What we know:
alpha/beta; 13 helices; binds magnesium ion
Amino acid sequence: RAKEHGRNNYRFYKPEMNAQASQLLALENRLHQALERREFDVYYQPQIHINTGEIIGMEALVRWRHPELGLVSPGQFIPLAEENGLIVPIGEWVLRTACAQNKAWQNAGFSPLRVAVNLSPRQFQQPNIASRVALALEETGLDPQYLELEITETTIMQNLDFASEMLRDLQTLGVYISIDDFGTGYSSLGYLKKFPFDKLKIDQSFVRDLKDNPHDIAIISAMITLGHGLNLKVVAEGVETREQLELLRSLQSEEMQGYLFSQPLTAEDATNLLHNPLIKTNIYCSTLCIAY
Ligand code: C2E
Ligand code: MG
Ligand code: MG
Ligand code: MG
C-alpha cells in the first residue's frame, strides 16, 4: 500500500495507525451482526418542488445505531460494507424498508410520492439487480413508478456495457433512475445520452459555495441547462440557505433537497411532516416571498 503513494512520500508506519486499524476492524466485526440485531434504520429526506414548496419525494438514507458509538454515519460504514460485500444485504433491507414505507404512506391516503434509494456500485453490479428490485416491489406492493434508484456516475463508468444493459432492464420495470452526485465523477458526458436516466442530482459541492463564487454559478447553470436539454429533471442537493435557493430558482432548477427545508427524518417525523406539510411549506414559501 505504502508503495502506491510514490517514492517521495513514503509513509512510515505509526502506532496511531494501528489504533485506527483496530477501530476499523471492531466496526467491521460489529457491522456483520448489525442487520440481525436490527441496528439499522432508514431516515427520509424530503425533496421539494422549488416553486410550490410541495414535497414530491423522499430520499431514503440508512442510519446505523451502534450500541456504543451511537449513530454512525453512512460515510463511515458504507465504504466498509462496500468492501466486504455486506452492502448487498444491507442495501436490500433498505430497499424493502423504503418501498414498504412508501406503500404505507399511500395506504394512509397521502398523495403519492417517489421514494429514492441509493444503489452502491456493488449492489448495482449484481447480475440480477433488476429482478431483485422487481421482487422488492412485488413483495411490498409498491407501483414501480414510485420508486427511484440513485446511481452515481462512477458506478456507471466502471463497466459501461453492463451498466447499459442493467439500466435498460430497470427502465423496463418502470422505475425512475437518477444520476447521483452529478459532476463529481468522470467527466465524460457521452454516457448521458446513451442511458435512460430520468433525473440529474447536482452534487452538493457545487451548491455549497454558490453564493460567493461566480465560477460555481457558471458551472451549476451549465449543468441545469444540460439536464434540461436532455429532458431530465434537475435536483440540487445540499441546499442550506435562502440565497442558494433563490439562485437555483432563477436558474430554473425545479427540485431541491437540503437542510433549508429539512434534515433527513425518522419515518415517524417524516409522516408527521406529511400530515402537516402546510406549516413547513408556508414558512418555506414566505422565505421565498411567494404569495401562497
Ligand atoms: P447521497 O446519496 O449524496 O445523500 C445526500 C447526503 O447529503 C446525505 O448524507 C444527506 O444527509 C446529506 N445532506 C442532505 N442535505 C444536506 C445539506 O443541506 N447540507 C449538508 N451538508 N448535507 C446534506 P448521509 O445520509 O450521511 O449519506 C451520505 C452518503 O452515504 C449518501 O450520499 C450515499 O452515497 C450513502 N448512503 C446513504 N444511505 C445509503 C444506502 O441506503 N445505501 C447506499 N448504497 N448508500 C447510502
Ligand atoms: Mg443519494
Ligand atoms: Mg448525492
Ligand atoms: Mg454523496
